[in-house]
Amino acid sequence: MKLGDYFKNKRVLITGASSGIGAALAIQMSKWDAHLVLVGRNEGRLADVAGKCGQNTALICGDLRDPSVINRIQKSAEAAPMDIVILNAGTASYDADESFDAAQFNELINSNVTTMAHCVQAVLPSLRKSRGQLALMSSLAAYGGLPKSSGYGAGKAAVRLLAQSLDLDFRHLGVPVTCICPGFVQTPLTDQNRFPMPFLIDVDSAVIRIAKGLKARSHEIHFPKRLSLLLKLVMSLPAAWQYQLLRWATARL
Ligand SMILES: NC(=O)c1ccc[n+]([C@@H]2O[C@H](COP(=O)([O-])OP(=O)(O)OC[C@H]3O[C@@H](n4cnc5c(N)ncnc54)[C@H](OP(=O)(O)O)[C@@H]3O)[C@@H](O)[C@H]2O)c1
Questions:
Q1: Domain boundaries of the chain, sorted by first residue
Q2: Which ligand 1 atom sits nearest the alpha carbon of residue 112?
Q3: Which residues in the chain show pLDDT less than 70?
Q4: Are 186 and 201 in contact (CB under 8 A)?
Q5: Residue 50 alpha carbon to ligand 1 centre in Å
Q6: Which is the closest atom of ligand 1 to the Cα of 65?
Q7: CA 31 – CA 8 distance, rounded (Å)
Q8: Which of 123, 118, 166, 157 is nearest to 137 (CA)?
């Protein structure tokens, strides 16, 4: 089966569809004739993406921290069960030099983890009925602690464990749960970064890698392999070696 055929006529919900990876996923899936429900916060940008996706597109506009938006997602999933739900929305911010801000940490956990948990609860009953699949957006930053990334890394690690745990609980019931772990992808989020981003890839390449992993119903989608396999290797070493290697590799950040 060709990659695009897998998504033809599938009902796909994507959060964070107004920008970056989510927007590019939506546009590509529309070319494959998926029926889309797109969730995003910025009304104008979400409408622009919808305009590129054609008529099989419904929109839910609002902030995922608002319970009424979660409620609308649940209603939409109940009205027409989803085949694929991609919980992609997320934000990033980094610690200032030699400081730690608990409020910023809390905000990242709320935006990147807590909202995702509410979305999971909203869509899971419908996914169980349709035996659909769920994908949660984590990051290669989840593989281990990195400098200045306390909130972002901890949040993405929580998402990764959330996905692994849900996969154990629901895959055998017909709902595979995939964790998506990208390295650096060029999007408005990374455009703000002022540090070197090794192995940065373009958003369309990221979309194809994600689509292939969804078609394979993978447990984890990780890319680019040069970076993900290197990180997996480093994180398999004793903690003291990990520390030395990561200190050396990130000294200029
Ligand atoms: N780019 C990378 O290198 C990279 C690498 C690893 C993982 N990721 C993850 O991939 C996901 C997408 O990132 P991206 O690079 O595509 O970033 P992006 O261009 O900034 O897009 C983020 C999307 O999430 C939405 N969003 C954020 N907080 C939200 C909230 N509270 N309620 C509703 N929507 C919210 C944004 O909506 P608005 O624009 O409407 O505000 C936007 O649609 C994130 O979870 C990110 O952590 C990205």
A1: 3-249
A2: 45
A3: 252-253
A4: yes
A5: 17
A6: 31
A7: 9
A8: 157
User: 77-100, pLDDT tens digit by residue?
Assistant: 999 999 999 999 999 999 998 899
Each residue's pLDDT tens digit, 33-72: 999 999 999 999 999 999 999 988 999 999 999 999 999 9
pTM for this predicted structure: 0.97
Ligand 1, residues at Cβ distance < 6 Å? 16-22, 40-42, 45, 63-65, 88-92, 111, 115, 137, 139, 182, 184-185, 187-190
Question: Quick one: which atom of ligand 1 is closest to the CA of 138?
Answer: 7
Record the tokens describing residue 247, joined without a space.
């200190």
- Is the distance from CB of 19 to CB of 44 less than 8 angstroms? no
Q: Which fold would CATH assign to domain 3-249?
A: Rossmann fold (3.40.50)
| Atom from ligand 1 closest to the CA of residue 186 | 1
In the reported structure, the alpha carbon of residue 207 is separated from the centroid of ligand 1 by a whole-number distance in angstroms of: 14
**Residue 49 CB neighbour total at 10 angstroms:** 25
